[in-house]
Amino acid sequence: MSEKTKILETFENQYPDRDYKIVHTAPEFTSLCPKTGHPDFATLILEYVPDKLCVELKSYKLYLESFRNDGIYYESVTNKILDDLVEVCQPRYMKLTAKFNVRGGISSVVEVEYKKV
Amino acid sequence: MSEKTKILETFENQYPDRDYKIVHTAPEFTSLCPKTGHPDFATLILEYVPDKLCVELKSYKLYLESFRNDGIYYESVTNKILDDLVEVCQPRYMKLTAKFNVRGGISSVVEVEYKKV
Amino acid sequence: MSEKTKILETFENQYPDRDYKIVHTAPEFTSLCPKTGHPDFATLILEYVPDKLCVELKSYKLYLESFRNDGIYYESVTNKILDDLVEVCQPRYMKLTAKFNVRGGISSVVEVEYKKV
Amino acid sequence: MSEKTKILETFENQYPDRDYKIVHTAPEFTSLCPKTGHPDFATLILEYVPDKLCVELKSYKLYLESFRNDGIYYESVTNKILDDLVEVCQPRYMKLTAKFNVRGGISSVVEVEYKKV
Amino acid sequence: MSEKTKILETFENQYPDRDYKIVHTAPEFTSLCPKTGHPDFATLILEYVPDKLCVELKSYKLYLESFRNDGIYYESVTNKILDDLVEVCQPRYMKLTAKFNVRGGISSVVEVEYKKV
Amino acid sequence: MSEKTKILETFENQYPDRDYKIVHTAPEFTSLCPKTGHPDFATLILEYVPDKLCVELKSYKLYLESFRNDGIYYESVTNKILDDLVEVCQPRYMKLTAKFNVRGGISSVVEVEYKKV
Amino acid sequence: MSEKTKILETFENQYPDRDYKIVHTAPEFTSLCPKTGHPDFATLILEYVPDKLCVELKSYKLYLESFRNDGIYYESVTNKILDDLVEVCQPRYMKLTAKFNVRGGISSVVEVEYKKV
Amino acid sequence: MSEKTKILETFENQYPDRDYKIVHTAPEFTSLCPKTGHPDFATLILEYVPDKLCVELKSYKLYLESFRNDGIYYESVTNKILDDLVEVCQPRYMKLTAKFNVRGGISSVVEVEYKKV
Amino acid sequence: MSEKTKILETFENQYPDRDYKIVHTAPEFTSLCPKTGHPDFATLILEYVPDKLCVELKSYKLYLESFRNDGIYYESVTNKILDDLVEVCQPRYMKLTAKFNVRGGISSVVEVEYKKV
Amino acid sequence: MSEKTKILETFENQYPDRDYKIVHTAPEFTSLCPKTGHPDFATLILEYVPDKLCVELKSYKLYLESFRNDGIYYESVTNKILDDLVEVCQPRYMKLTAKFNVRGGISSVVEVEYKKV
């Protein structure tokens, strides 16, 4: 388990017999561009169907804040966050959509998905 | 039957031969966070296909108001309200979407569903 | 044929060989609450695929106005209007969506559908 | 070929091997109501998949302007424009959506579709 | 390889085992109308599922800027940009939607798609 | 005192030493057109600075409902409502803005004002 | 009195002792460009303080429709309509704002005002 | 000093030589209707120019939460909150705008102001 | 007279006795950044009160297009366009507002004004 | 001159004879809360009338980024940025509006102003 995933906490899903959806929208994500060192900004939309565990909201906030001074690309950070969350809470389904602010006149979205087999 | 479900009243569906949809949007739901004691706020969107019974609107409003000073988590309150409504009016289909206000810079949605087998 | 349906007029569909959709949105529907006597307000969205007959727009307006001083519930009025329109113009498909204004902090939608067999 | 369709011009589709979509939105369509003589106004949304020919945009504008002083019903004008465009450019698929302004408190949409067999 | 595609750069997809979506929205595309010489303006929405390569964002911006003084039609420029991007980064799926500003009272959208076979 | 003004009730202003503003927005006003008999609809925005008395909200709602089947023109009804409210609660300042729905393609606003001398 | 102003009718202001404002918004104004013959479209916002006479709404609608096939410039038509209305109803104050649709990528507004001396 | 004002805390204004404006928007205010016992909801917009003291944000939040189960009228609660804040932080200027949710089809705003003499 | 101002044409103001306002909104202005050579984009809002001459709309469009490949700063281009227009049409009042797109995460507006003395 | 103000650069105002307005909107400002260490986020709107010097945009961006890991209160950071900018570019007028994101259910704005005497 990496340093970052240790920040993430979970709590027991009280309704494991039902497939239901949880969405957390975090409009204050920020990290650094590895090339220029300038800050990037994104809104992260996390949508998942819990199995035995739910993501604890405060720890998720702290986990996202831990990227503040990391240099990391759009595609990498989106995939990494999904992988970390899947590892920690083993959901039935999870999707992460990251909507990055305009850079050079272009805005970008990265959308990654996980389905339990 | 719990104390809370006793508040809920129903009336007879006058068009039981037709599958049709009813949606009630309640933007004034509030309960307490069980950890901090501070109030939470949500918009509840209830969508259902009635069978023999419809949810009486005024009693639904009173039922929602009964959570005002209860300490209860996002995921629990959404599942509980669905369960109570299903128990009382036995619909053919029911979905409850709870959109909670921003906390710690993150807004949350919980969406639960029931289908008669 | 009831008093109300006599208000409704139709005209011949000039393109019966083609399945096509007509939508009429009427944001000024009003009737009375049978319990309190106070006025209710709704936007009615009528969507249909005509067969041999189309709903004449002016007569539809007069038909809707005829509910102005009637005491009738949300679910009943929506189902009744669909039934009347189906009886009069015998469409291939018809859907009526009634979006009622906020009452007691809650807004309601009723959505009913008809499919020719 | 009618007088009106003679206004419409086409140009050769340079990418006939690929199915792709073209949408033209014309918010300034106006004709006359055949009953009252008063002007009607609509936004026309034309969506199509070209085969060998594309609709030339300027001629389409002139074609739409030619209805300015014609008395014609909502349903008729929408079906007629689709028929004319299909006749002239023989598309793989075409849909025309006409959104008419409020008359008597009611706004109307007519949506017609063509699929090459 | 044409002059234009030489501007486009790629970088290695770090998550090739996962199908995921990248969207770049460029609201500042401009070229010239080949008939009149006047400038056209469009918002380009590029959506793709990368295989081994991703489009490098800065080079994509430069590539789009290279059309600034080119005379080229709506349909051609949209198809050409898709072809160039497919050639250079060989994605699993790619869609380009170009939304052109109002000309002669009509706005236009061209939407082209590529699927790896 | 007319029949209508008898419906209006007031309560004592608890803060008469301070000039402050109260605004009531009523989007469900409806009366009849005296010429055609068809219903008119308006949003009424009442803004006032109370002196000794405040308008009781429920009685104001009933007062507005009393116009439901009255035939009365836009300009008259707006001036009349202002006059009635001024007569009953004697405010320091009062403004009534009535925004009527589209009729014959034209929407209308009437705005009347009263200042205590 | 010109042909056009003969269309305009007035009715007596029932509240001449009070200065109050009437606004009519007509989003369906259309005339022709005198240079190109192509139609122009505008939203006309008429705001006035009546003296002895008010503009009759239906006649105002017919008056606006009378420009449908007239060739006339933006600045001229706006000034002319104000002059005609001032001549016919002699208001204490009148302002006409004409918001014309995009032509050549540019939208235009003309705003003219009259104050009784 | 009342029980409620004891909740409010202040901190020293670091820039007392400059007149500047602070605005706090609290969309989650709720109290009870003293007549019916049902909850009321409002957005409170507090705008002020500090003198020696600023309102501490967390204590302001707790202060607002203390009204949760109090029965109090729109006009009273708005005036009371202004008075409490003025008493505690003695600002140069302060305005409180309370926008209450729809009740009986009518939404209400109360706006009160304080100016240091 | 510079090369650029020669493009601008005027026509005689037909209503010189009245002070009235003309607004032209041009959302498609583009020039180049003199430092980086990359394109800048802006919406230009021109508002003026004509004296003897009005700006001819088509020539204004061509004048704006002439900046397409010029390297010029935000502040300079806004001041220069105002100066050119004032020189050519000698208005009673003129204001130019230029709203530039986001660069480096920051959007900029420059607003310049001229008043005849 | 402090470390931070050294980051700020200026360029000579080319139009010092004219009073004109420049507005820079920076929606990506972030610093840390000195109490909790958690990040704060704000949109900064800088509006000024230059005298001899203008704020160089890129250096302003770098200056704002320098607060990324500073612990500083809402009121302090807004006043400090204004003071720094006034010191460096000596404008005729300057206003800074900082709109902070929701914290504890409350969003805040701080607005400070400078006028040359």
Oligomer: homodecamer
Number of helices of chain A: 3
Cross-sheet strand order for the largest sheet of chain A: 2-3-5-6
Distance between the termini of chain A: 22 Å
SS elements, strand count of chain A:
6
* Largest beta-sheet characterization of chain A: 4 strands, antiparallel
N-to-C SSE string of chain A, H for helix and E for strand:
HEEEEHHEE
Q: What general outline of chain A do the C-alpha atoms trace?
A: globular
What is the beta-strand fraction of chain A?
A: 35-45%
Q: What would the average pLDDT of chain A be, to the nearest integer? A: 96
State the helicity of chain A in percent bands: 25-40%
Most extensive contact: A-E, 15 and 20 residues
Instruction: Give the uncertain stretches of chain A in residue-range form.
Output: none
Supply the helix-strand structural class of chain A.
alpha+beta
Question: In angstroms, what is the radius of gyration of chain A?
Answer: 14 Å
Keywords:
homodecamer; 117 residues; alpha+beta; four-stranded antiparallel sheet; two-stranded antiparallel ribbon; globular
Put the structure in a nutshell:
The structure is a homodecamer of 117-residue chains. By secondary structure, the first copy, chain A, is α+β, with helices and mostly antiparallel strands. The first copy, chain A, has helices at 3-7, 57-65, 74-89, and strands spanning 10-12, 21-32, 39-49, 53-55, 93-103, 106-115.
